[in-house]
């Protein structure tokens, strides 16, 4: 009987807890239903084992079957659980969680890039969407920011009124002025209007075509205009507005306004080419037909 057949007539250990690689070289006689006596598949010798222990099996291979012992040792090393499956990583993970929790509770320094990014975003929201500054004191807005970034601590509305929004205005104005300086020619539109509370304002918008043939326009100002709306006052106000933006009048192709007599007078006084608004003139024409 060769070694292979002698090994095959031994049955493997029963049960789901056979995890040790050493059982590849040991088994039981088929008649040993209770699997009481462990036998070596190589030399057929019985090997005593303690309850669930495989120490004697490893010793038997090491002392009597060197080649099989080396193979068994190699397999055992390969089947060892990686360090990531053991306890220390759990501790590391717990430590990492505590570190993250701690870092989330530490507010950003006001010099940190992330703090500036969040503050600029709040200021942009106020300016772009034209919401009241007190919006930032509402509980819903505060909760939204805390959810977005727990480390960001919102400053008072006084800071946004006196610092953040004026700074954003200055930065934006410089960018717009730089682009207008590159325009060879431009036109403007202006209008007088009243708010819901009947406060008077005057707006001035510049239009030009850039080097890539794209139409650009910027609202240069919307200023409170409580003075009497005479042609002279309007004309001086528009001249001052262009001067504040360092826009040369010779580069201004024309000015579009409504057909009000005060606007017509202001354009003549400034000696500017005047283009009356088509929509306004059409509205007046329809009114005269009634």
3D structure, described in words:
With 290 residues, the chain is an alpha+beta fold. It has 3 domains: 3-78, no CATH class; 108-174; 183-289, Nucleotidyltransferase, domain 5 (2-Layer Sandwich). 47% of the residues lie in helices and 17% in strands. It has 10 helices and 9 strands. The chain has helices at residues 3-8, 55-64, 66-78, 87-105, 113-128, 139-148, 157-182, 231-244, 261-270, 278-289, and strands at residues 10-11, 26-29, 38-40, 46-47, 186-194, 200-209, 215-224, 252-257, 274-276. The strands form 2 sheets. A 5-stranded mixed sheet has the order 7-6-5-8-9. The protein has a 4-stranded antiparallel sheet with strand order 1-2-3-4. Helix 2 (55-64) crosses helix 3, helix 5 (113-128) crosses helix 7 (157-182) and helix 8 (231-244) packs across helix 9 (261-270). The model has no long low-confidence stretch (mean pLDDT 86). Residues 17-72 form the BED-type domain. Keywords: Metal-binding, Transcription, Transcription regulation, Zinc, Zinc-finger. InterPro entries: RNaseH-like_sf, Znf_BED, ZnF_BED_domain_contain, Znf_C2H2_sf. Residues 72-92 are annotated as: Disordered.
Q: Which features does this protein show?
A:
290 residues; alpha+beta; Nucleotidyltransferase, domain 5; 3 domains; five-stranded mixed beta sheet; four-stranded antiparallel beta sheet; rod-shaped
